[in-house]
Design goal:
There is one protein chain. The chain contains twelve helices and 13 strands. It is of the alpha/beta class and 328 residues long. It has a seven-stranded parallel beta sheet with strand order 3-2-1-4-5-6-11, with helices on both faces.
């Protein structure tokens, strides 16, 4: 691994986590470069930006020049995940190998497959049963194989379902927060009375930054800390407290989701992951917190910040103000 004097931190991806990680690393006073196909509009002062398609290994390597740490925060459209995501990672992996940088890769929990309510720990096998799960597991194996062959050093950070002020396309996204502000019911698949871990994007960013700056993280897998795990209904109670009125739940049965999937590609893509909401879905972050210390934002604080973010976004787009907000 390089000990590049520039200590350059290069982030591939300017989505919800990439932007949060950029702000976090810049806040630590580290030199940061963002690589994406389109220039972000809200980069912090002093942050460099390079245009590149990560599927082009040459372009990715050139964009990552002088990197000491590379963060893989890319994603692919949900309906094309299995086809488009692996080539993105391969380009970033090639860039890390060629520059000698540490590769910090963000992952979700799909690769584990169903655990039937048993908490997720880092030593569980990758036993995915779904198309997206097997895709994720294969991507993980590519990283581990490169590490085991001595081609580079890696650190993998895994998180559960995202939420936060800028997160819309998520189980805990616009269908919950925007609906709640508008006085509509929150849409959910599965049972809201089961424990379910949700990962707060600023916490994910802070965790990835630790993996990229603490040598103890190298060549291991880590579950990134976040808010405490409660039931989804308890999450909605906190949302209700912030918006000032009760938030109902419209739980969409799997059969209905399957039927919608016949005409809606996104719903079709969601069907195979519905097992996440049939049993408790709990992320164990003990390993990370034992090594690096207690971390994670309190759930009430994270929910309040997320509601504020959605409310501010609506205020900036008067044409989109919902009925509930017009009454205020």
């Amino acid at each position: 691994m390089s000990t590049n004097e520039h200590n350059q931190h290069v982030i591939f991806g300017a989505g919800q986590v990439g932007r949060a990680l950029t702000a976090h690393l810049a806040g630590l006073g580290l030199p940061v470069r963002v690589v994406s196909r389109h220039q972000p509009t809200d980069l912090p002062d002093g942050v460099d930006w390079r245009e590149a398609d990560a599927t082009d290994a040459e372009a990715a390597t050139d964009a990552a020049k002088d990197a000491n740490v590379i963060y893989q925060c890319l994603n692919a459209p949900y309906t094309k995940w299995a086809e488009q995501f692996p080539p993105l990672q391969r380009g970033v992996l090639a860039a890390a190998e060629r520059t000698g940088a540490l590769l910090v890769s963000l992952e979700n929990l799909y690769g584990y497959g169903p655990t039937h309510g048993t908490p997720f720990t880092e030593d569980l096998p990758l036993a995915a049963t779904t198309i997206k799960g097997r895709t994720r597991a294969a991507m993980t194996q590519e990283l581990l194989a490169a590490r085991d062959a001595g081609r580079l050093h890696i650190a993998i950070g895994r998180a559960s379902d995202f939420f936060g002020a800028g997160v819309t396309e998520s189980t805990l996204g616009a269908r919950v927060f925007a609906n709640a502000l508008a006085g509509r019911r929150a849409d959910f698949i599965g049972n809201p009375d089961l424990a379910h871990t949700y990962s707060y994007v600023p916490d994910i960013a802070a965790g990835l930054a630790t993996l990229g700056t603490d040598k103890r993280a190298i060549d291991a897998v880590w579950h990134l800390p976040g808010p405490e795990t409660v039931t989804t209904r308890q999450v909605l109670d906190l949302v209700a407290a912030e918006v000032g009125h009760p938030v109902g739940v419209r739980s969409v049965p799997k059969l209905a989701v399957r039927a919608l999937g016949l005409v809606n590609p996104t719903m079709r893509a969601l069907v195979e992951m519905a097992y996440e909401f049939d049993k408790p879905f709990v992320l164990d972050t003990t390993k990370y917190q034992t090594m690096f210390g207690s971390a994670g934002t309190g759930l009430a604080t994270a929910i309040a910040a997320t509601v504020d973010g959605y409310r501010n976004k609506a205020a900036k787009s008067p044409s989109r103000l919902n009925a509930a907000e017009r009454k205020e």
